[in-house]
């Protein structure tokens, strides 16, 4: 990551030095997919890949944003910030808008961005940007905002300004995670617990493989799943699908087969996430593998959010020696994760690449994930 280039670009734009560098990581969700907006549980961890912002205050009324990777600058007046903006700059401007909407005294700023979180891969590249900007503006304008509220501000930017109907999972992970740990988050109460993930000590590693099938949370499929869940909860007379106590009884009250399938995924995925938390807290990380497999089957068959590249990657990873594997992220493309024995992840990635080539798919990319700390100041 070119941090000197980041500083140089800031100085070029402003004729001043940046007041600091702030970062926030991408995340991978170990388990708990589409449970967040159903008031359920999730278990993500932060990645070493991150967004970094060089930032400083201005004495005019502009928010000046620059992307180092795109070599593009966008300016918007504070008074012109409004939901509905498009493009990469909306994720930065949206945070300024969200903070001001919440009553924070945030003024003009220059924000220069770089990121090595893969785009469209289900690793929360957008949340990384948002949470890095939140961290920067909180420090620059000396705001008293706790970590959970920071995550909420970032989510407001994504939901209301960008227009993506995501839950809090991405922003919470990017803000609250710590090194060598996952985050078990109750998406209703927002209570959280750090979950030790001593992968190396237990002879394990997590392969993250990007199928290079881009996805977007702003598209209609994600919103349709969420709307179906909300409609099902209303029919069942409960606040959210998290409140289903007897799955079979609930399914018996629903007439539409599609709705029954969506409910079954959410309820069983929630149970799997709670079980995964208990397994991890007991220090038995290898025992997570069957839960990963069951999660993928549920996303494929009941939630119907996988695609051929993702299914082939999961199947190949398992046949090549992964203990368990599943799609991770919102679906319709993106990444898979595979729980592997130490040293085997890269070979499993090569096996998937060979399977993709044989199937006529484009080449995937992969890395071994390192549970990393959440947002903060770099310099």
UniProtKB/TrEMBL annotation:
Residue span, GHMP kinase C-terminal domain: 282-356
Residue intervals of the GHMP kinase N-terminal domain: 91-176
Tagged with keyword Cytoplasm: yes
InterPro entries, per the entry: Galactokinase, Galactokinase_bac, Galactokinase_CS, GalKase_N, GHMP_kinase_C_dom, GHMP_kinase_C_sf, GHMP_kinase_N_dom, GHMP_knse_ATP-bd_CS
Function: Catalyzes the transfer of the gamma-phosphate of ATP to D-galactose to form alpha-D-galactose-1-phosphate (Gal-1-P).
NCBIfam families referenced in this protein's UniProt entry, alphabetically: gal_kin
Gene that this polypeptide is encoded by: galK
Record-annotated Galactokinase N-terminal domain positions: 9-56
Catalysed reaction equations from the record: alpha-D-galactose + ATP = alpha-D-galactose 1-phosphate + ADP + H(+)
Protein name: Galactokinase
Pfam families reported in the protein's UniProt record: GalKase_gal_bdg, GHMP_kinases_C, GHMP_kinases_N
């Amino acid at each position: 990551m070119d941090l000197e280039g980041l500083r140089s670009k800031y100085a070029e734009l402003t004729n001043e030095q940046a007041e600091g560098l702030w970062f926030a990581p991408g995340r991978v969700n170990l388990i708990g997919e589409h449970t967040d907006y159903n008031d359920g549980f999730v278990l993500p961890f932060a990645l070493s890949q991150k967004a970094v912002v060089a930032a400083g205050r201005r004495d005019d009324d502009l928010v000046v944003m620059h992307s180092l990777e795109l070599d593009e600058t966008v300016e918007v007046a504070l008074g012109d910030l409004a939901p509905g903006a498009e493009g990469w700059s909306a994720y930065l401007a949206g945070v300024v808008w969200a903070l001001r909407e919440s009553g924070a005294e945030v003024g003009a700023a220059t924000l220069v961005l770089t990121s090595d979180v893969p785009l469209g891969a289900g690793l929360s590249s957008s949340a990384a940007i948002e949470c890095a900007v939140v961290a920067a503006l909180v420090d620059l304008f000396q705001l008293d905002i706790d970590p959970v509220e920071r995550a909420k501000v970032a989510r407001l930017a994504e939901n209301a300004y960008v227009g993506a109907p995501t839950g809090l999972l991405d922003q919470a992970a990017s803000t609250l995670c710590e090194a060598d740990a996952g985050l078990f988050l109750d998406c209703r109460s927002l209570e959280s617990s750090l979950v030790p993930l001593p992968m190396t000590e237990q002879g394990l590693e997590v392969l993250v493989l990007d199928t290079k099938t881009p996805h977007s949370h702003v598209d209609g499929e994600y919103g349709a799943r969420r709307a179906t869940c909300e409609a099902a909860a209303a029919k069942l007379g409960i606040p959210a699908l998290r409140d289903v106590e007897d799955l079979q009884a609930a399914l018996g009250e629903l007439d539409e087969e599609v709705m029954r399938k969506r409910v079954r995924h959410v309820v069983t995925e929630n149970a799997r996430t709670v079980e995964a938390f208990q397994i991890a807290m007991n220090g038995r990380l290898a025992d997570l593998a069957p839960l990963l497999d069951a999660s993928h089957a549920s996303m494929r068959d009941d939630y119907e959010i996988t695609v051929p590249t993702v299914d082939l990657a999961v199947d190949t990873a398992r046949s090549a020696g992964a203990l368990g594997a599943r799609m991770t992220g919102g679906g319709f493309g993106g990444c898979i994760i595979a729980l592997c024995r130490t040293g085997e992840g890269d070979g499993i990635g090569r096996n998937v690449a060979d399977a993709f080539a044989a199937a006529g798919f484009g080449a995937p990319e992969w890395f071994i994930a390192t549970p990393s700390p959440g947002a903060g100041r770099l310099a």
